[in-house]
Amino acid sequence: NAGVMQNPRHLVRRRGQEARLRCSPMKGHSHVYWYRQLPEEGLKFMVYLQKENIIDESGMPKERFSAEFPKEGPSILRIQQVVRGDSAAYFCASSPSDTEAFFGQGTRLTVV
Amino acid sequence: SQQGEEDPQALSIQEGENATMNCSYKTSINNLQWYRQNSGRGLVHLILIRSNEREKHSGRLRVTLDTSKKSSSLLITASRAADTASYFCATAPAGGTSYGKLTFGQGTILTVHP
Question: Cα separations (Å) of A67 from A18, A62, A64, B28?
Fold first, then answer.
């Protein structure tokens, strides 16, 4: 059973471009969570999704950020018109529902 | 202070010594978890302790939880250079079923010198 898979591991975007981060949960896991880690800081919750539903997006910035978890395929975190302040590590976690979540290796986004 | 704050921010010890890290939180929790993160890498889940538990062991790790003080500690015994990493506590809120919606602390940077 493969772990939570995130890709790409590293992503470089110029200011104004779009960044798309993908997360494939562990097999059998229907809950996905996205976190952001700014340099030298802990992880901050962004959004919690189940298949085709956003359950909790209380940590998502109001603009430019969106997330989806379609019926088929990975969960996607999309950042439009990236700015330098979006540079961070973005982690995805998945859980089956009633146990702890398992984290992926993260995607490190650098905006130049 | 924020939910899930670790203390100290940085800890430097010699190989073989014990390392103790503390975590405080503010709101009621369902469980508290400790994670390790090597520099620039992903998170490794170390141990989970539920709100009705007081102590838990896993190998060289010992975690305690005091819900009356809203605090937890992580003890690493007989430390090794390979234990050098950042350690984070994370809390899952009480009353919910969202076990993955965690509040992380700022982390303790542990350096173990050979």
Answer: 13, 12, 10, 28
